[in-house]
Amino acid sequence: MLPVEEALAAVLSAAAAASAARPTAEAVPLHDALGLVLAEDVRAPDPLPPFRASIKDGYAVVASDGPGEYPVITESRAGDDALGVVVTPGTVAYVTTGGPIPDGADAVVQVEDTEQLAGAPDGSKRVRILVRPTQGQDIRNVGCDIEKDSVVLKSGEHIGPAEIGLLATVGVTTVKVYRRPTIAVFSTGDELVQPVTASLSRGQVIPIISQCLRPSPLSAFIFTEMCTCLQIRDSNRAMLLAAAIQHKCKVVDLGIAKDTEESLKEHMDAALSSDADIILTSGGVSMGDRDLVKPCLANMGKIHFEKIRMKPGKPLTFAEIVTKDTSKPSKKVLAFGLPGNPVSCVVCFNLFVVPAIRSLSGWSNPHLPRVHARLLHSLRGDPHRQEFHRAVIRWVPDDGSGRPGYVAESTGQQASSRLLSMKSANALLEVPLVGQMLEAGTSMQAILISDMTSSPFDKLPTASNPLPSHLFPPAKSVSTDLSQVPASQNTEVKVAILTVSDTVSSGAGPDRRYFIKHLFLHDCC
């Protein structure tokens, strides 16, 4: 059995070679760039701000004038260019936040440090300045935020909501990014049926619905057949397709392959002809007489490894296949034979497939983030295989050491068939090969596989309830019956976004709605 580190190194080496041989970049609209990786440097075509701008609402003044009463000669609002307006000694101009500073002015006095005076008979306005400003006060100079032609984003940077806003700021509407990998997914097993199957067979002869390799969205199921086997709904394929989409991949759903050489070969050929960069299969990689994925991969390509010293996920198989379609340039395709047990399947996806996806997608660091967390309870390490224990991680004011930090709570019974152990899990604890009990309070490395926004802890540790001497009470079970969820928590949230700005409406400044929009998309509203 291969150690996890060596197996991952083999995957990343193959991914790097495959990435070097494939077209790396594509242009996408700005609104489609979230979560992708820049494939070129982005430079600012203009300075920001493009003019001297006011930091606050107030009055543009000549600083040497000092406190006193002054006539207001004009109003310079955001969106106005203030052309032809000159503030001379003894005069002031009203300015709004972001508005241009008129020529002649060298400071801004905020509204809070002024008093409005009664207007003159001719209708002109006057104001009393209450403080002595300093030269340059509350003025943003040209290019102080971004200099013209400066690199604002570098090739290889990950595009988040803030980067979307920055791209909009410098006028980028089409972004050159690393190509998203295409992933073809199919499950294997005579026992598998579609998730839509209402009643599962327990061995009696019943008709079942099967799926074609290339279903259309409206007619996915095209023929029936008789089945005498026990049935299981195919959860792995749905899970893998969702996980691939979550990691910004394009997906090809190839359905379910039977436990025959012909069916497996047919599905593998379909995957290769789909122009996939990665092929994911689930099931058929153990030692049974109908576990045919390994021989199929060996016949079609080169197997790098087929057993890992890990728990769960021991039978994971990884291979490279070179396409042989003479009508297209050949390319290397990464093929992962994932275990059929659901937990083993998703754990292997996070540990090996995600780094491969990120490598193909241009990430400089393809690994999932890691943190150290203290155990809320004891657990036993396996003496033979490194275990990846499903857990919930949360940041707390006191992790038991008297300092803030992360704590980890197990998701319960860790059988590789028990998909409930992945429910709410946001981390995999890297349990060392010790073969002994690890006590509560032990610090352990954890791989983060999702965010930490919905940890189901009941309480937080406090000074009077530290770890490890006092542990948290068990988390309360959470009902998964959606009928019990209040309607207000089980609805789609619609957010209307409106930019209110004279600067933007006049075309003098960038519209940053893209930034706000992607903040909401990032939080799945």
Automatic annotation (TrEMBL):
Source organism, top-level taxon: Eukaryota
InterPro entries associated with the record: MoaB/Mog-like_dom_sf, MoaB/Mog_dom, MoCF_biosynth_CS, MoeA-like, MoeA_C_domain_IV, MoeA_C_domain_IV_sf, MoeA_linker/N, MoeA_linker/N_sf
Cofactor: Mg(2+)
Keyword set, alphabetical order: ATP-binding, Magnesium, Metal-binding, Molybdenum, Molybdenum cofactor biosynthesis, Multifunctional enzyme, Nucleotide-binding, Transferase
GO biological process, one term: Mo-molybdopterin cofactor biosynthetic process
Record EC number: 2.10.1.1, 2.7.7.75
Annotated pathway: Cofactor biosynthesis; molybdopterin biosynthesis
Gene3D superfamilies from the UniProt entry: MoaB/Mog-like domain, MoeA, C-terminal, domain IV, Molybdopterin biosynthesis moea protein, domain 2, Molybdopterin biosynthesis moea protein, domain 3
Pfam families the UniProt entry points to: MoCF_biosynth (PF00994), MoeA_C (PF03454), MoeA_N (PF03453)
Regions annotated as coiled coil: none
Every MoaB/Mog domain range: 184-359
Alphabetized GO MF terms: ATP binding; metal ion binding; molybdopterin adenylyltransferase activity; molybdopterin molybdotransferase activity
Listed SUPFAM superfamilies: MoeA C-terminal domain-like (SSF63867), MoeA N-terminal region -like (SSF63882), Molybdenum cofactor biosynthesis proteins (SSF53218)
NCBIfam families, A to Z: molyb_syn (TIGR00177)
Main function: Catalyzes two steps in the biosynthesis of the molybdenum cofactor. In the first step, molybdopterin is adenylated. Subsequently, molybdate is inserted into adenylated molybdopterin and AMP is released.
UniProt family annotation: In the C-terminal section; belongs to the MoeA family.
Protein name: Molybdopterin biosynthesis protein CNX1
Species this chain originates from: Oryza punctata (Red rice)
